[in-house]
UniProtKB/TrEMBL annotation:
The active site is at 43 (proton acceptor), 305 (proton acceptor). This is Alanine racemase. GO terms for biological process: D-alanine biosynthetic process. CDD domains: PLPDE_III_AR. Its EC number is 5.1.1.1. It is an enzyme of class 5 (isomerase). Belongs to the alanine racemase family. The modification N6-(pyridoxal phosphate)lysine is found at residue 43. Its cofactor is pyridoxal 5'-phosphate.
Amino acid sequence: MRSVLPNHTRPIWAEISASRLRDNFHALQAAAGPQIEVLAVIKADAYGHGATECAPVLAGAGAQWLGVTSAEEGLAVRASLAILPQGMSPRVLVMCGLWPGEEAGILDRGLTPVVWEPYHLDLLEAEAHRRNLPAQSVAVHAEIDTGMARQGVTPGDLLERLLARFTTDSPLKLEGVMTHLASTEVGDDPQNQVQMIAFASALQQVAAAGLKPEYVHAGNTSSTDSGYIPQDLPALAAGLGARAMTRAGLALYGYALPLESATDRVIQSEGFLKPHLASSLKPVMTWKTRIVSLREVQCGDSIGYNATFVAPGTMRLALLPVGYADGFRRALSASNAEAGGLVLLHGRRAPIVGRVSMDLTIVDVTAIPECSIADEVILLGESNGERIGADEHARLAGTSAYEVLCGISNRVPRVVVS
């Protein structure tokens, strides 16, 4: 159990299903196919699920690569993998580059950084020389910017200068080349093809420089779900004698974005836009709390901050010790004019009433008379055939399942269950 508090006693926690996490990884690998390695993305604290909790489970499921945000996150993940038998520990890719001061930890713990700026190479080379490391002993993956204007070096002169740094006597080895695509949930979006053409051009530059990376990777959950990237990636990788790899995060945790068409923005029922993956996924997290107080209010009584909800009649209310400081979003609040979010109690949906506050939320349990103090409440998860998912919270909040999951704070301990 993990929390920012040394002795966590608040009745709020998130259960992480190890079996579902394993099953989702296996579903991803099956959808990607035998020619493509799946890198399991556990950056941003495993999308709110706990990177150090999820990493050993994924390693046990067969993941050969894990992707993290930063060297700091990578060091924590590497420590969590120490429980594994020798030889089972996966590689750890630091996906957002490195910053001065991180190079020593990267080399100490065998992390693999993504690079695109010359200073990334300067830092790693200097530390490698300080340690008298042999030639081509520090593996890195270079990211190509093919159209997001975010991370990555652009094809052409800048890429040529970066590739020139990988000489036979340099301690650095170009082990992988990667790019990131902007619109994979819209499988036939022309931008995808534009980016893949740019990536192919960049790989030609890599080949012309005489470099032979072991991995070529692109794509994410949506591209695996649509089948778009698996069509092209193995051939691109084979041109360099490399292994194709795709990176998937959201699907590991049981979610996938709805696939769309660029022409009508509605999912197609046939062809490569038909989901290959989504129906196989199961949410990994069940977020729970308990009722801490019950009360009855009368018609006309106001509920919560600013009296946004006024009881239309006699109501029985349950108080839950969860609020927006825990990541239970304020957008789930309800007024008399607008319904809000829901929770599950005894397998039934109970509506939020009033505003979600910093530490507390009120729900209407009038229709669930058997409720008692200390009863378990499901904030995200399933019970008796009912389900409330991060995608449902996202619709109410006008955001994505990514943001909902990543927003669950460290006040909520994560507990791995079988």
